[in-house]
Prior knowledge:
The chain is of the alpha+beta class. 36% of the residues lie in helices and 30% in strands. It has a 6-stranded mixed beta sheet. The protein has a 5-stranded mixed beta sheet with strand order 15-14-13-16-17, with helices on one face. Strands 4-1-7-10 form a 4-stranded mixed beta sheet, covered by helices on one side.
Amino acid sequence: MKMKLLYGILLAALPAIANAQAIDYSVNGQVKGLKDGEVELHAYDSRTRVSKKVGEAKITNGKFVAKGRLDGAQMISVNLKPGNWGTQLFVDAGVVNLHIDTAGAQHYDYTQYGMQKGASLTSVKISGSAAQSDYEQYEKTSAGMAKDRAAISQKQLAFIKQYINEKPSSVAGVYMLNQYYLFNSDLPLADFEGLLATFKGSAKQSAYFTNLQTEVAEIKAVLPGQLAEDFTLLKPDSSKFTLSTLRGKYVLLDFWASWCKPCREAIPHWKEVYAKYKDKGFEIVGVTNDNKWDQWKKAMDQEKMDWIQVADEFPVKNMPAKIVSKYKSRTIPLYVLLDKEGRILVKTDHKEEIDQKLSALL
């Protein structure tokens, strides 16, 4: 009987544990320039590029109150209609006051690309959110330094390190690191892991922290010495090619595209390399980043490459190609040299590094 009672208590406690980070919020808004309409709140996942609606309300006489529950403090986007006016704010528990003036907004029109038109609000005042105030301080670190990317990066990272040391449980801190990494993917792995190890409490339980942990795991999976993940892609004639069929050979994965100028400029060099080593147990696999096969085939006709060519896949709309994204590179060309067992020897955007390794091997 006692065991049944204890089991019942534990079951009853599970929802509370699962929602330990959940917060009740209220966004109280005042809008100048839009008397009546609607407001929607969305949360955005930068890894999946998926936006999810988390709240909505009516705008009446220029005012609205949007209430709801979130899985912890987070940055959300605010969209006002009609007009598709947009801004962002960091919501944490309690009441956040939002004062908007539509005057001076920056209008855009992306309808020719199959997207929307609207306006980014520039006159916005937010109060009541400590996380928002902290994030605004982070954004000020780059004020007046628009042309000096290296200096901005250095200043932002210094701010993040100090902030995390002072407030290791703040979700705002892990969000800052998340945003920083989006534009600074060359952050050394040791520094990346060191920063993640500093977080505690609510910060560690946030989706932002989980995303960064996943990123670190994926970086480690493509370090030299790791077994390259096998893949099957289509060749120009639509027949299938599987990477593991080349076991027993040294393989260079050349990630390129018809529209990539440095990729195509490197092709004459790879022709020389291929001629030199193809009879010594070496193969090249070109993996195109083209999503339009006619452009890919036209480039192949022009370049006349003798090695294997396959097309990367784009399984999710507006997401990077499937295979190249696994190698954590945001630019091409990208070169990955594999040994005879399919393990990564070199991953680089410099063809000279590949040359040196092949010379030592063959």
